Each structure stands twice: as C-alpha cells, then as structure tokens.
C-alpha cells in the first residue's frame, strides 16, 4: 500500500530532541538555586545536538501553545566546555538581549536573527564576542538592535537591570560605536530592514571578504561602496531598494554574481522601468548568473517577442527559444527566475527551471516557497492566488501546496494577512476532494496551525476560516489529539454575547460534534471548562431575541450529548437554570420539533441520575412531560423521550410521589397508552452507546410501566438495527435480565411478549450475524 502524502515519520533525532525539551528536568537538567534551570554536571553535548536543541526549542515556542518556555534556557549553553553551539536560528520578539549574552562564549559560525525586535544595542556587544568565528550573520527585521535602551552606551554594565530588559529600545538613541571591525571570517550577511538612520556604507566598510549580501528595504545614500566586493560577491539582494542608473552600473561590475535580486514588492511602488537594454546588459555582463529576480518591475513592451511568434510549439526552457528577448543570450537556462507581479511571467517560453509568477499553479507555489521567510507581503498575495486555484480549479500539487501554506502560517504566526489567506487556502486544500491523498500526520499539522491562528487572532475572518477548516475533519476522531485545546478555543469564541452569527453557528456545530461519541472523561473535562454554562447563555440570548435557529437547536443538541452518562454535567445543567430555559423554549417555540427532541433527550439524561430526579418531581414538570407524551413531533422521538424521563421517575416508587395532582396512576396510564401507540418498526434518530440506563429498569416490579417502556425500546432497536444492537445487548448482559422479566408476575403480558421477541432476535442474530436489515442501517447522532 502506497504511503499517503506527507506521511514520512520524524527522525529519531527529532523525536528525542522534542522529548528532552518537554522534559528538561527529567533528562538533562536539575532545579538549581532560586529554581534556576541548570545543566547536569555529567552532561557534554556536541554542536549537532546543541544546535538542534536550540533551534527546535524556538520552533516549539512559536508553534506549540502547550510548550512552556524556560526563563533560563539559554543559560544552559553558557559554558562551551559542556555545550557547543555553532549554528543558531532565533526569531520574533521572544528573543531578549540576555539570551544572546548567555551564549556569547560560544564559537558561533552561523547566527540568524529574524524579526527580533526586543533586541537592543546590548546584543551588538554579544555579536562582537562572535566576531572571530562568525561566517554567516542575519539581522533581518531586527529594527531596534542598533538603538540603545535609555541612552545607555554600548559598553554598558553586564548587570543591567531586568526591568530595563523588558522595555523597548528607544529609537532616538542610535548606537554609533558599532561596526563590523574584526569580523574577518564573515562571508554571508543579511541586513534586511536596516533603519534609515544607520549608514550602511560606514557599517560595512571593514568587511573585506563578503560573498553574500542582503540589503533588502535599505536606503542607500551611495552605491559605489558596493564595488569593494565586486570580485568576490556571489549573491546580492536589493529587494525594494530604489534602482538608479548609478546602482545598475555598479551591479554590472560584479562579474562573479551567481544570484542577483533587484525585485520590488509591487509595480505600484516602482518608479524605475525595466528595459530590454538593462536586461540584456545583465545577461551579457553577469555571465555566471544562475538566479535572477526582477519581480515587481514595470516592463517595457519591447522585451518580449510578438504573441503570434511565441505561441508556436510547446513551452520550452531553451534560451534560444525564449519569449523574452534578452534571455535568448543566456548560455544555459537559469535555475531560478523571479517574475512575480510582472507581465513577463505570462509568456510561453521562459528559460528557467523554476519561475515565480501568477500564470499557473507551479509559478504560484514557487513564489510562496521563495518569498515566505523574508517577504510575507508577497507570500500573502501568492497564497491568495493559490486559494483561487484550489477553490475554482484543481490543485495538482497538493502535498507541496499544503506544506508551503503550513510553513507560511508557522513562520508568520503574528502576521494577520498571512493568517487570513493561509487559513482560507487550507479550507479548500483539506476538503473532501483532496482528503484521500492526505496522511494522518499531514492533517494533524493542518489542525495545529489552524488552532494557532484561532489562538492568536480574535478577528472575525481568521476565526471563521479556521472554524470552517476544522469542519473538513472527522470529528471528534481527528481532533482528539488536541481535544482540550480545541474545546477551550471554541468556548472562547462563543463567550461574547453578540458574536458574528456565522462563526457562532459553526462553532456551536463543532462543539456539538466534539462531545458526540467521546469517552465520559472527555465530557467531564469539557464540562469543567464551562461548556454547559456557555451553551445555556447562547440559548438565553436566542430566547431574548425570540429566535429558534440552528444555534439554538445545536446548543440543546450539544447539551444532550455532553450530559450523556455524566452526572456532574447534568448537575451543572440544573444549577444554571436549565429547567427554566427548557420551559421558556417550550412555551416560546411550541412547533419546533427538532428543538423539542433535543431538549427531551437531554432531560432523559438528567432523569437517569437518581440523585437529581427529585428536582424533576414537581407538578409543573410532571405535567409538561405528561403532556408531551401525546406529541407527534419528529415521529415518536419527543413522546419516546418524555416517556423515558417519566419511566426513570416512576422507578423511584410511589413513596417519593408527594404531589396530589397529577396523580401517579393517571400518569402511568397515559405512559402506557403512548407506548401502545408507537410503531415498533419506527426508524430512529438516536444512537445508544450503552443500554445500561435502560437495563436497570427491567428486573423490577415497583413500576411495571417503566419496565414496559424499557422492553419496548430494546424490541424496537434490535428489530430495526439488529447488527448494531443485538451484540450490544448480549455484551451488556441484557438476555439474563429479560429472562427475569419473564419470571416476574408483575410484568404485563405484553411486556413479556416483547421480551421474548427481543431474546429471539438476539438468538437469530447469533446464528446469522451477517444479518444487516437489508443494508438499511445508518448511523445517527449521539444519544444524549
């Protein structure tokens, strides 16, 4: 059997790393002075393990809400005699100055800091400590690292107060004493988003051996300084840097460039027009290029061959057939060509193996892949285009599409635009059309990022998209691994008194599905989260609006499910004015059959709890239940459930019946009449997981009508659904209890007759277990 998409298991290294990080005190560490986390003295960890620990730790912090960060985690790597770090990737505001200070004795080779806005110029001092070993450095989006906190100089006291640590760096106190003097081994540098106040030329001047430089979104006062690396630079990224003739001329001198990126976010912001002459010069002068990105540029029309001419033949990547004139001079196809948000991506013959653009699914996926990490504004647009492909057309590269969207959502957890478009795309990429091709592992990854989005954003669009995506999964089975978390998030959505109607409807539907056919300990746990109170609040709100809609019906259905064989939840229902709301709904909506069925099903659960039955034994409630015996709503269901409630009450005997009106005998007579009126072959909108509440009513003589109702229920179920309910009845010891019914003199003759037929049906089933009632059996919703 072929593996499904995304089914590759994690490596043993990954699994062991995650286990250690979740159990630091049981594996590598102990609790030291003042609860400080300390590394055990007999531990020595090489760089391969230390790098994995730190980088996985950062991923867990950002993607797993159940993971608890450790205040002193980075202190574990303070001593290079016991731990060795070489390649570290840190991101987002979670990273503090003290974290870099903790590891400043390490001989780092790579340090990637991305969007670390909590870092101040204190971290520049830590960078200096890595200057002799650092080969690759990224400071992308670290907007405050070149500014002092409170005006403190760079050589500040190492014992800076913790209170200062938490305050943002002041944008007024620019650090002027730092440059890259002494970083002699540095080859790869990313300064994307460098503040305008920082002079890039002065900062970079000491670096003599750079081979890769990223100055995305950097304002360059001059460009001549770039020529100091003209013989060494292999990669130059100038995304969103304003092009000029001077800069283009400077770029042409860098003859060893293999990767050049002069792209822009959008044509709308571009003043520079990309001409055939400039593209030709790039191809002719930079002969070593294998990767070029000119996305977002306005292209002059003379760049492409006439449409009639280029439409001939199948699409080709051969340079000589290129639809873009300047690229006909390439010696070989480019490995990568960025044409996103340009007219060139629409031509037929493009001489590159991988092209970004918006013409087709391949180009869009390439764009998401290329731009997610450092250009969320472009990734957002590309994901939006993928959304259209999945919604209107068909996504042919499902695994890749899902993995790229998941990666974008993980990488930009705090970017609302990515979360909106990503969650919308996931809804279409996980629907029934694609489901059979997806592995359990991949679908779980989707669930994780969806829940991350729900957790981070209370905004209507994100919440709706995430809830809709969850509806594509088998509930509760596929959500059980995150059962507590998803319930908490849904209840949080339903807290506001005036929630968006569509979100409310979807969230209540999910809540109902989540408590349907799960173990009782799950229901009890969800009950303690406030589930019962939340549902009753929704019902109260609908009553105030005099509206009986899906939210109202789903809320009662959810209460029916969550109270099934869970006395604590039944008690909560009573404590939260549940019976008052029942009466109000009955009075306000006398003709809503589905509503009545759900409410009576719930009250059947309450009536099964002996300690709670006295609260139902009032003239008002008994009269209501007695009147509902005559209901024809939803077939026999409302009448059946009302009779079930009364059967449990009658089972407590005449001693507890203290009221004069209605009389116990008259209610029992009415119950018997109702049972006689039901068709035993009725198909049912109910699903029993256990017969225990019914079976306890069989071997007794205190309330023969209760015994009669219980026997009718079993007779109906084993007759209509033998393959489902005969095994259940046999398993739970029902046959011996039915034999006792036959032995009791108090049992009605009709009761004994039905008991015999139930036993015969089970015997027949044992002899012919393939019997399935002509294949008509179906699965209904949970019995409340």
UniProtKB/TrEMBL annotation:
Domain Protein zer-1 homolog-like C-terminal, chain residue ranges per copy: 409-763
Alphabetized UniProt keyword annotations = Leucine-rich repeat, Repeat, Ubl conjugation pathway
The entry's cellular-component GO terms read: Cul2-RING ubiquitin ligase complex
**InterPro entries, A to Z:** ARM-like, ARM-type_fold, Armadillo, LRR_dom_sf, LRR_Zer-1, ZER1-like_C, Zyg-11_UBL_adapter
Q: Which Pfam families match?
A: LRR_Zer-1, ZER1-like_2nd
Superkingdom assignment: Eukaryota
Ranges for domain Zer-1-like leucine-rich repeats region come to 202-342
By sequence similarity, the record places it as follows: Belongs to the zyg-11 family.
PANTHER family reported for this sequence: PROTEIN ZER-1 HOMOLOG, PTHR12904
Protein name listed in UniProt: Protein zer-1 homolog
């Amino acid at each position: 059997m072929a593996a499904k998409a995304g089914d590759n298991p994690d490596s043993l290294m990954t699994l062991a790393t995650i286990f250690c990080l979740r159990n630091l005190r049981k594996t590598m560490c102990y609790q030291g002075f003042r609860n400080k986390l300390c590394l055990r003295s007999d531990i020595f960890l090489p760089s391969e393990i230390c790098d994995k620990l730190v980088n996985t730790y950062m991923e867990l912090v950002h993607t797993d809400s159940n993971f608890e960060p450790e205040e002193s985690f980075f202190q574990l790597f303070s001593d290079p005699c016991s731990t060795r770090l070489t390649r570290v990737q840190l991101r987002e505001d979670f990273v503090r100055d003290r974290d870099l200070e903790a590891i400043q004795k390490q001989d780092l080779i790579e340090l990637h800091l991305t969007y670390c806005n909590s870092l101040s110029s204190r971290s520049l001092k830590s960078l200096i400590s890595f200057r002799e070993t650092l080969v690759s450095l990224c400071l992308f989006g670290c907007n405050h690292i070149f500014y002092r906190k409170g005006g403190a100089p760079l050589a500040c006291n190492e014992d800076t107060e913790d209170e200062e640590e938490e305050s943002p760096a002041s944008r007024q106190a620019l650090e002027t004493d730092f440059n890259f003097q002494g970083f002699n081994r540095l080859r790869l540098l990313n300064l994307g988003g460098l503040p305008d106040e920082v002079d890039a030329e002065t900062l970079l001047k000491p670096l003599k051996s750079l081979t890769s430089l990223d100055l995305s979104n950097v304002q360059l006062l001059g460009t001549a300084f770039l020529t100091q690396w003209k013989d060494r630079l292999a990669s130059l990224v100038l995304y969103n840097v304003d092009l000029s003739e001077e800069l283009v001329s400077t770029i042409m001198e860098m003859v060893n460039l293999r990767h050049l990126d002069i792209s822009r976010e959008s044509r709308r912001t571009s003043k520079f027009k990309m001409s055939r002459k400039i593209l030709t010069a790039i191809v002719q002068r930079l002969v070593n290029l294998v990767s070029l990105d000119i996305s977002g540029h306005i292209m002059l029309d003379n760049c492409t061959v006439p449409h009639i001419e280029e439409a001939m033949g199948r699409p080709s990547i051969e340079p000589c057939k290129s639809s873009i004139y300047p690229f006909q001079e390439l010696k070989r196809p480019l490995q990568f060509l960025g044409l996103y948000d340009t007219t060139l991506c629409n031509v037929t013959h493009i001489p590159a193996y991988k092209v970004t653009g918006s013409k087709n699914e391949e180009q869009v996926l390439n764009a998401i892949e290329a731009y997610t990490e450092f250009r969320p504004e472009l990734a957002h647009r590309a994901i939006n285009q993928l959304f259209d492909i999945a919604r209107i057309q068909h996504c042919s590269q499902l695994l890749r599409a899902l993995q790229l969207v998941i990666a974008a959502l993980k990488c930009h957890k705090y970017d609302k635009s990515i979360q909106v478009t990503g969650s919308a795309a996931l809804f279409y990429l996980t629907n029934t059309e694609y489901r059979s091709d997806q592995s359990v592992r991949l679908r779980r990854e989707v669930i994780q990022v969806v829940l991350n989005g729900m957790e981070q954003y209370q905004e209507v669009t994100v919440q709706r998209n995430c809830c809709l995506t969850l509806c594509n999964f088998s509930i509760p089975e596929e959500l059980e691994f995150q059962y507590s978390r998803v319930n908490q998030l849904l209840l949080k959505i339903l807290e506001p008194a005036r929630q968006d109607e569509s979100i409310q409807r979807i969230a209540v539907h999910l809540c109902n599905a989540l408590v349907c056919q799960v173990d009782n300990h799950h229901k009890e746990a969800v009950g303690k989260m406030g589930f019962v109170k939340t549902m009753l609040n929704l019902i109260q709100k609908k009553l105030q609006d005099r509206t009986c809609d899906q939210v109202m019906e789903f809320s009662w259905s959810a209460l029916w499910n969550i109270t099934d064989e869970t006395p604590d939840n039944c008690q909560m229902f009573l404590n939260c004015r549940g019976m008052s709301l029942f009466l109000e709904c009955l009075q306000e909506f006398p003709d809503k059959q589905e509503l009545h069925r759900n409410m009576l099903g719930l009250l059947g659960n309450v009536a099964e709890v002996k300690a709670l039955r006295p609260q139902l034994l009032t003239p008002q409630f008994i009269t209501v239940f007695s009147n509902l015996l005559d209901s024809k709503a939803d077939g026999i269901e409302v009448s059946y459930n009302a009779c079930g409630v009364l059967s449990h009450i009658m089972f407590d005997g005449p001693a507890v019946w203290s009221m004069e009106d209605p009389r116990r005998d008259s209610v029992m007579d009415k119950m018997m009449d109702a049972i006689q009126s039901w068709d035993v072959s009725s198909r049912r909108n109910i699903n029993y997981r256990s017969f225990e509440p019914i079976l306890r009513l069989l071997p007794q003589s205190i309330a023969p009508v209760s015994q009669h109702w219980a026997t009718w229920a079993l007779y109906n179920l084993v007759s209509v659904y033998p393959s489902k309910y005969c095994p259940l009845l046999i398993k739970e010891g029902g046959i011996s209890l039915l034999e006792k019914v036959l032995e009791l003199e108090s049992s009605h003759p009709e009761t004994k007759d039905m008991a015999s037929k139930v036993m015969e049906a089970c015997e027949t089933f044992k002899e012919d277990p393939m019997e399935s009632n002509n294949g008509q059996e179906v699965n209904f919703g949970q019995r409340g």
